[in-house]
Amino acid sequence: MAWTLPDDGEGDSTIQSILFQEYMDVLVAGINGIDCVLSGCAVTGSAGMTPAVAKGGVLSNGTMFAVAAANATITAADATNPRIDLIVITSAGAIAVRAGTAAAAPKPAAKTANDVVLAAVYVPENDTAIATSQCIDMRVLRQQGPIVIHKTTTAVVVNNDVAIRTYLTVTMPDGLMATGKTLRVRCGGTYLFNAATLPTAILTIAFGGTTMFADTQIIATADADRGAWWLNFDIVQQGASDQQLMGMGIMTNVVTAAHVPPTAGQAGNMAGSLAVANRPVSWEMAGTAAVNTDNANRALTVQWTMGGTASASNEITLESSTAELL
């Protein structure tokens, strides 16, 4: 069950059946994919004034946050009149309560910008415990993709460095990558290999700490002109602890002298097509992981290493990336 309003007589009070403008704003923002719930985050009552929020994932202003299971705290009820509080995930990814104003005919509390509203809580006068029936589900669940859950619009630049460096990280909230889900990633940028000592360009794609693809190109010819690189791949959740990676990559203006084949459990290589000066090298990628995505947040990472000797004339940049949940 997600965004709903009870019929008159179904809830604890007829006040819960009123369609307020604030509720419509929540619905519109969710449908537009601006402030919405991706998974979980259901609110249930408790023996006291601390209803429980389940684990899940949300988008606030298009930014994804993982939500750990926790309790929200409803402040003391008014002695005379009821009120309507909102339990939300803030634009910083935290659980919060927006307290309404007690009145004979109360309205829900006002949202703060880009709050993801989870529930509207009816707090009658002198209340001391919040039951589940007092928590009206306001979650707008976006369960059908594609929906953009991450994007990079600011360049990531690394040069004069031989360590493995992370260019892209997408943290998937606990439970979001359910069986049948696909994470589609596209990313690219530029590179410059023009040092006296040329690097080994090592690409590594990992999920949940498991390397799904890693391969090396040995750069043979220096070039003062920048080249471009581009990756397009899917990670498919085929089972509770079963991920499969498939995709393609390309680099322009590379002459490949040799390559190091991928490790066991992976396929493809970065010398996938004949490298000719001023022509692109393309490669296919495949790999596996066996990561339980329902017991912790799991990170996808895309990394490059410029092995060899550090030089300011060897540089790899990430210019853009998108990750979509399908």
Provide a brief overview of the structure.
The protein folds into two domains: 14-137, no CATH class; 147-325, Jelly Rolls, CATH 2.60.120. 3% of the residues lie in helices and 47% in strands. It has one helix spanning 21-31, and strands spanning 35-40, 43-44, 52-53, 56-60, 63-67, 70-71, 83-89, 95-98, 116-123, 135-137, 147-152, 156-159, 164-172, 182-193, 200-207, 210-219, 227-239, 242-251, 256-260, 281-289, 298-307, 314-325.
Give descriptors for this structure.
3% helix; 7-stranded antiparallel β-sheet; mainly beta; Jelly Rolls; 326 residues; 2 domains; 1 helix; 5-stranded antiparallel β-sheet; single chain
Structure description:
- The chain is mainly β.
- The chain has two domains: 14-137, no CATH class; 147-325, Jelly Rolls, CATH 2.60.120.
- Helix content is 3%, strand content 47%.
- It contains one helix and 22 strands.
- The strands form five sheets. Strands 11, 12, 14, 17, 18, 20 and 22 form a seven-stranded antiparallel β-sheet that branches. It has a five-stranded antiparallel β-sheet with strand order 13-21-15-16-19, with no helix packed on it.
- Strand 2 and strand 3 (52-53) form a beta hairpin.
- The longest helix has 11 residues, at 21-31.
- The chain starts with 20 loop residues before the first helix and ends with a strand.
- The model has no long low-confidence stretch (mean pLDDT 89).
